[in-house]
Design a protein that fits this description.
Elements: E1 2-3, E2 8-11, E3 16-19, E4 29-33, E5 37-42, E6 47-51, E7 58-60, E8 75-80, E9 86-88, E10 100-106, E11 109-116, E12 119-126, E13 133-142, E14 148-161, H1 163-173, E15 177-182, E16 187-192, E17 205-210, E18 216-220, H2 221-225, H3 235-239, E19 246-247, E20 251-261, E21 266-276, H4 279-290, H5 294-310, E22 313-316, H6 320-340, E23 354-355, H7 356-366, H8 371-382, E24 394-395, H9 414-426, E25 435-437, E26 443-445, H10 446-458, E27 488-489, H11 490-509, H12 513-533, E28 543-544, E29 550-551, E30 561-562, H13 564-571, H14 577-591, E31 592-593, E32 596-597, E33 600-601, E34 627-628, H15 629-641, H16 645-653, H17 657-664, H18 666-669, E35 677-680, E36 691-694, H19 698-711, E37 714-717, E38 720-723, E39 733-740, E40 743-751, E41 757-761, E42 764-766, E43 770-772, E44 779-786
Parallel strand pairs: 40-44
Antiparallel strand pairs: 1-2, 2-3, 3-10, 4-5, 5-6, 7-14, 8-9, 8-14, 10-11, 11-12, 12-13, 13-21, 14-20, 15-16, 15-19, 16-17, 17-21, 18-20, 22-39, 23-24, 25-26, 27-28, 28-29, 30-33, 31-32, 34-35, 35-36, 37-38, 38-43, 39-40, 41-42, 41-44
Helix pairs in contact: 6-7, 6-19, 7-8, 7-9, 7-19, 8-9, 9-11, 11-12, 11-13, 13-14, 13-15, 15-16, 15-19, 16-19
The structure holds 1-deoxynojirimycin.
Length: about 800
C-alpha cells in the first residue's frame, strides 16, 4: 500500500482506494449497484439510493448544491448510552470526530473504520449482485477494560421518489406517503403512492430493518432530527428513538439497536435498506437476508462478479499508476458509465436521461466485460431510431418520457462502431439479424438500422460536400454553427470516415456489395473534400458556419485550431500520411499542456463577433479551451496509429487522475484520484487543472480503449485478435492476459523500442499482427517483440 498524500492511498492488491481524511476538496464518490438498485456514496457517507431510475424512484434524499457538499446520506451513528457522547462511523456528519478514522472505496462497496473512546467500529456498505438492497454490515467492538452499553443508529431521509415533482410539488405530494414500523417483520416500510404518479404499479415500497430486534425506530424525520437541527446533531441521538410513524410529511428511517459489550467483545449488526412489492414481500425478502450465511454469500458473490469481469483484461506493467487504472479503476468506471450514462453524480442531478451518443460509445469499451448486457443495451439504443435513420439524442428507456426531436450530425453514426465492435469481440455477426423496432413504428434488423444511419447522413450534406453540422456534432458547443441550416462539420465527415469502413466490412461479409461500394465511395468523396478545402496549412479545419466562415484557421482571431479534426484525421485515415503527422505536431505545439491537451486554441471571448461568440463558456472552461479529457483519448490513439509511442504515453500518462492531481495539486484538481473527469479547467483559467464532471464521462470508455487497444495494442477485429503494441520506449515490456472468445491469451511483450511488431503464437512465428481466431482453443501464448525482428 502506498500513501501518496495525507488524503488517500491505494491498495492495488485489494483494489481499494483508502481515505485518510474525511474532507477532500469535493466529495470523492463511489457507486454501489447491481444494475437495478443503486447507491452513490461519498468517502464520508453522503449520498443517495435509488431504484432503476433516479428520476422516478429516488428512494433517499440527497441535496444537490448543499453545504456541506454531500448531505445527507445513509449514516451510521454510535452513542455511548452512559455518557451520551455520540459520533458517526462515516467520519461525517457529527461534529465529534472519532479519534481514528478511515474509509475506503472498493469495487461495489465502501467501508468505514473508526475507533473512539474505547469503541472500534467497522462498517461495509454494499449492494449484492442478486438482491435489490443496500446491506450495511457493522461490527462494534469494545476495546477497553470495562463493560459498555452502546446504541447504534442507522439513518436515512426518504425522498419523494419522483424527483421533479418533489422539487415542484412537495407540499402536496408529501402528504401522500406513509412510513411506518411493521411489527410482523420488525421493519420500517415506506410506501409512496401519489396521484398521477408515473408507473404506480412498478413503484417499489422501501424496507429498512436490521438482522436483530430493534430497540427503537423513527419514521418522522422531524421527530428524529428535531427543530433547527440537522443530521449533524439529531435529537434522536440524545433522547433515543421515539417510535414515530408518519402518514404524510417528511419521512425518514431511523433504526436503533442497543449493544451490551463486555470488555473485548465484538457484536455484529446488519441493516438492510431494500425494495419490495409489498409489506409481505418485504417480510419474505428480509427473512432470506436474515438467514444465517445469507449476507456472507451475497458478499462473496460481489467479489466473484468483479473478479470475473476484470479477468477479461489484466496487465503487468512497469508503471504502477497505469496498471492500477488498466486493471481496476478504469474498467470499473466504464461499467458505471454503462449503467448510469451521464445522469447522476456529484455534478449531475439525475434528470437528464440517457445520452444516445454517450451510451453508444460507452458500450464499445464495456462489451468485453459482459457481451450479453451490451447486446441488450444495443437493442435499447436502436429502438430510439426512427425509420429515416434519425436517433433521439436523449432517451428515457426506464421512464418512457418523450424527448425533443433535435437532429445532430453524429448520434446515428455511433452505433456502426458499437455494433462492429460487439461482433469483433464476440465473433457473432448474428446480432445483425436481430430485429429491433423503429421508434416511429415498424421494425428492422440491426443491419438495416445501420444502413439507415448512413442514409440519414447522406440526406443531410452541406453545400461544400461535407455533412451539415445540424444541432451539433460530438461537440455540443458547436450549436451556433448551423443555426440557419447551412453550417457543416469536417469532424462529422471524419466520423463517417471511421464508421463507413466498418459497415463496408460487415456488408462485404453479408454479400451486400452495393452497400460496401456505397460506403467506400462515400468515404472517398468525403476524403477528397477534407483534403481539398479542410486543410489549413498545418492542421485540419473544424467546420464551416452558416455564412461560410471557416472555423479552425490560422486567419481567425480565436479558435484557430481544434483538437478533434487533427486526431480524427488519423483515426479515419482521411488525412494524407504527411498531413496526419503535421496535424498531430500542431497539437503538440499549440494545444498540449502539462495537464493535458486543450480542445481549442486560442480560447474564444468575442469571436466571430462580440454579440455572438462561438462559445458561452468562460475561457479555459468546458468546451472553450479546457483540457477536454474525453477528446484527449483520441490523441493517444492517433499517436499510437502514427507509431509515436513517446507522445502517446505522454498524453495517456498526464491524465491518469492520480498523476493529474499531483501535477495540479490536490486543492486545485479537487476531483477523485481514481476516476477520470470529463474535463479540466485549461490554462486560460486561474483554476487551471480543476477537474470537472468526474465519473460519468466518455473519457472512461475511450481512455480504456486507448490504453488497452492502442498503447498495449490488444485489439479485437472481425477475424481475430490484433496484437500491435506501442509501448513507451523506456518500458522493457509488459505482460497481458486477455480472455477473447473463450480463449485465454497470455501476451508477453518485449520492448526494444519502436513500433515494428514481430509475433510468435504458441512458439510459431506469425506473419503480421492479427492472430486468427481458432474456435475451441482454450489458451494461447503470444510473444510480441517490438523494435527489432527476432529470427525464430
Ligand atoms: C459531454 C456530453 O455528455 C457529450 O455527449 C459530448 O459529446 C461532450 N460533452 C462534448 O461536447
Amino acid at each position: 500500500m502506498t500513501q501518496f498524500t495525507e488524503y488517500y492511498s491505494f491498495d492495488d492488491v485489494a483494489r481499494e482506494v483508502r481515505f485518510l481524511r474525511s474532507d477532500p476538496p469535493t466529495p470523492w464518490m463511489n457507486y454501489l449497484s447491481n444494475g437495478n438498485f443503486h447507491v452513490m456514496l461519498s468517502q464520508a457517507g453522503g449520498g443517495m439510493v435509488w431504484y432503476k431510475s433516479p428520476q422516478i424512484w429516488r428512494l433517499t434524499r440527497y441535496r444537490f448544491y448543499n453545504l456541506p457538499m454531500d448531505r445527507p446520506g445513509p449514516y451510521l451513528y454510535l452513542r455511548d448510552a452512559e455518557t451520551g457522547a455520540h459520533w458517526s462511523v462515516n467520519g461525517e456528519p457529527c461534529p465529534e470526530r472519532p479519534d481514528a478514522w478511515s474509509s475506503a472505496h472498493g469495487l461495489g462497496y465502501t467501508r468505514f473504520d473508526c475507533a473512539h473512546q474505547g469503541i472500534a467500529a467497522h462498517a461495509t456498505y454494499f449492494v449484492p449482485p442478486t438482491a435489490d438492497v443496500l446491506v450495511w454490515r457493522i461490527t462494534v467492538r469494545n476495546t477497553g477494560t470495562r463493560a459498555r452499553k452502546i446504541d447504534l443508529f442507522g439513518y436515512v431521509e426518504f425522498s419523494l421518489m419522483e424527483y421533479l415533482r418533489e422539487v415542484q410539488w412537495q407540499c402536496y405530494v408529501k402528504h401522500q406517503l406513509a412510513v411506518r414500523h411493521h411489527a410482523a417483520c420488525d421493519s420500517i416500510i415506506y410506501r409512496y403512492g401519489a396521484d398521477n404518479q408515473l408507473k404506480p404499479e412498478e413503484t417499489p415500497q422501501v424496507y429498512f430493518a436490521a438482522n436483530r430486534p430493534l430497540t427503537g425506530w423513527d419514521c418522522n424525520r422531524d421527530v428524529f432530527i428535531g427543530p433547527y437541527r440537522s443530521e449533524e446533531n439529531p435529537l434522536g441521538l440524545e433522547r433515543g428513538c421515539q417510535g414515530s410513524n408518519i402518514l404524510g410529511g417528511d419521512g425518514c428511517g431511523a433504526l436503533q439497536c442497543t449493544l451490551d459489550l463486555a470488555p473485548g467483545e465484538e457484536q455484529e449488526v446488519i441493516f438492510f435498506l431494500g425494495t419490495a412489492a409489498s409489506p409481505d414481500d418485504a417480510a419474505t425478502r428480509l427473512a432470506a437476508l436474515r438467514a444465517p450465511g445469507a449476507v456472507d454469500a451475497h458478499w462473496a458473490a460481489l467479489g466473484e462478479l468483479w473478479q470475473g469481469r476484470l479477468r477479461t483484461f489484466q496487465a503487468t506493467l512497469p508503471d504502477a499508476d497505469a496498471a492500477r487504472m488498466v486493471n481496476t479503476w478504469n474498467p470499473y468506471q466504464v461499467e458505471r458509465n454503462f449503467l448510469f450514462s451521464r445522469s447522476i453524480s456529484y455534478y449531475a442531478t439525475g434528470f437528464r436521461g440517457v445520452g444516445f451518443r454517450d451510451t453508444a460509445q460507452d458500450i464499445v469499451a464495456y462489451l468485453q466485460l459482459d457481451p450479453l448486457a451490451a447486446r441488450a443495451k444495443i437493442h435499447e439504443l436502436l429502438a430510439q431510431q426512427e425509420q429515416n435513420g434519425f436517433c433521439y439524442h436523449t432517451c428515457y428507456p426506464v421512464e418512457g418520457f418523450t424527448t425533443e426531436k433535435k437532429e445532430y450530425s453524429d448520434d446515428h453514426l455511433w452505433p456502426l462502431l458499437t455494433v462492429w465492435s460487439w461482433i469483433a469481440e464476440t465473433g457473432d455477426a448474428g446480432i445483425l439479424d436481430d430485429v429491433v423496432p423503429y421508434f416511429d413504428g415498424g421494425e428492422g434488423t440491426i443491419y438495416e438500422h445501420l444502413c439507415r444511419s448512413v442514409a440519414f447522413s447522406q440526406a443531410r450534406m452541406g453545400e461544400h460536400g461535407i455533412p451539415l453540422m445540424l444541432a451539433a456534432d460530438w461537440n455540443d458547443a458547436m450549436s451556433r454553427v448551423c443555426r440557419e441550416g447551412k453550417g457543416e462539420s469536417f469532424w462529422t465527415a471524419m466520423q463517417l470516415g471511421v464508421v463507413l469502413p466498418k459497415l463496408a466490412e460487415l456488408a462485404t461479409r453479408r454479400g451486400d456489395t452495393a452497400t460496401a461500394t456505397l460506403c467506400a465511395d462515400y468515404k472517398r468523396e468525403l476524403t477528397d473534400v477534407i483534403n481539398d478545402i479542410g486543410w489549413d496549412g498545418a492542421w485540419y479545419r473544424r467546420a464551416t458556419m452558416d455564412d461560410g466562415l471557416m472555423l479552425g484557421t490560422k486567419e481567425a482571431r480565436q479558435a484557430q485550431i481544434f483538437l478533434n479534426t487533427q486526431t480524427w484525421s488519423v483515426l479515419s485515415g482521411m488525412g494524407t500520411p504527411e498531413r496526419q503527422r503535421q496535424a498531430m505536431d500542431s497539437v503538440a505545439e499549440l494545444l498540449d499542456t502539462p495537464l493535458g491537451i486543450k480542445k481549442v486554441h486560442p480560447a474564444v471571448t468575442d469571436y466571430p463577433t462580440p454579440e455572438a461568440p462561438l462559445f458561452a463558456y468562460n475561457p479555459g472552461l468546458g468546451e472553450n479551451a479546457a483540457i477536454f479529457c474525453h477528446a484527449n483519448t483520441w490523441a493517444v490513439i492517433a499517436e499510437c496509429l502514427l507509431g509515436r509511442p513517446e507522445r502517446a504515453w505522454k498524453y495517456y500518462h498526464q491524465l491518469i487522475p492520480h498523476i493529474a492531481l499531483q501535477t495540479a495539486g490536490i486543492e486545485q484538481y479537487m476531483g477523485e484520484p481514481y476516476a477520470y473527469a470529463s474535463n479540466l479547467f485549461g490554462p486560460d483559467s486561474d483554476r487551471f487543472g480543476l477537474a470537472n464532471v468526474t465519473w460519468l464521462t466518455g473519457t472512461a470508455a475511450w481512455m480504456y480503449l486507448a490504453i488497452t487497444q492502442y498503447v498495449l495494442g490488444i485489439r479485437p477485429e472481425l477475424d481475430g485478435l490484433r496484437v500491435a503494441p506501442c509501448l513507451p520506449p523506456d518500458w522493457p515490456g509488459a505482460t497481458i492476459t486477455r480472455v477473447f472468445r473463450g480463449c485465454e491469451y497470455t501476451i508477453d511483450i518485449v520492448n526494444h523500442g519502436g513500433s515494428a511488431v514481430t509475433l510468435t503464437v504458441d512458439g510459431e512465428a506469425l506473419d503480421g499482427t492479427l492472430i486468427p481466431h481458432q474456435p475451441g482453443r482454450a489458451t494461447c501464448a503470444v510473444r510480441a517483440t517490438l523494435g527489432v525482428t527476432i529470427p525464430v
